[in-house]
């Protein structure tokens, strides 16, 4: 699952904060793209796991080790995604309970 961490770079010394500030629309689009890409990565891992499991059942591949690793990767990424979803919902509910 690629959450865009690799695209984070160091800020050059002479750079001001205003050069890095995005408009709210740009920030929202960027934030949405991160989640969209993460969900697509989880889906791709699930599909790959399903294909390898099916191929193993049909006798097309014999590497049980690779199939099990792929299935475990898919399972872990799905569990992490569900946990992130829960945390986001909890944070949203906490914000909604705040009094203004």
TrEMBL record:
Single GO MF descriptor: structural molecule activity
Main location as per UniProt: other
InterPro entries cross-referenced by the UniProt entry: FliE
Keywords, alphabetical: Bacterial flagellum, Cell projection, Cilium, Flagellum
Record's GO cellular component terms: bacterial-type flagellum basal body
KW Hydrolase (keyword) present: no
GO biological process: bacterial-type flagellum-dependent cell motility
Record flagged with keyword Hydrolase: no
Compartments (UniProt record): Bacterial flagellum basal body
PANTHER family: FLAGELLAR HOOK-BASAL BODY COMPLEX PROTEIN FLIE, PTHR34653
Family of this protein: Belongs to the FliE family.
UniProt name for this protein: Flagellar hook-basal body complex protein FliE
Organism: Ornithinibacillus bavariensis
Gene name of the record: fliE
